[in-house]
Design a protein that fits this description.
Blueprint (H helix, E strand, L loop, with lengths): L2 H12 L4 H8 L3 H9 L7 H11 L3 H6 L8 H24 L6 H16 L1
Helix pairs in contact: 1-3, 2-3
Length: 120
């Protein structure tokens, strides 16, 4: 495993995310996360690294060179998670608004059933 791959794994684990969940939040395939963590792929591209900084508050110097702290500031990390939550909520509302009014109760019940799976 490369040092870069090890730092990616440390970030993911500090966030409490599986490789699949981490990849999903970054908009990439799980295999790419696995390949980077194992050193099979040298590193993520600059756009993905920017997403790590923007979404999770990762300190770029730490990511690239192992210098400084993993997260630039705790508040940046929290703000990144909040932004992600806002995007997810907006997506749900956007699609919910497309449902005909007479079908919204049925859709709401379906959504609640799905949510119950994740609460247990």
């Amino acid at each position: 495993m490369s040092e870069y791959g090890e730092r990616i794994r440390q970030i993911r684990e500090a966030l409490g995310l599986s490789q699949s969940d981490f990849a999903e939040r970054l908009g990439i395939h799980k295999q790419m996360v696995s390949d980077v963590e194992r050193g099979k792929q040298k590193r993520f591209n600059a756009q993905i690294e920017k997403s790590l900084v923007d979404l999770f508050g990762v300190d770029l110097s730490w990511l690239l060179y192992g210098q400084g702290e993993m997260f630039a500031q705790e508040s940046s990390y929290s703000e990144g998670l909040k932004k992600q939550e806002d995007v997810e909520k907006e997506m749900i509302v956007k699609y919910f608004d497309r449902i005909p009014p007479q079908k919204r109760l049925e859709a709401t019940l379906c959504i609640l059933e799905c949510i119950k799976k994740y609460l247990n």
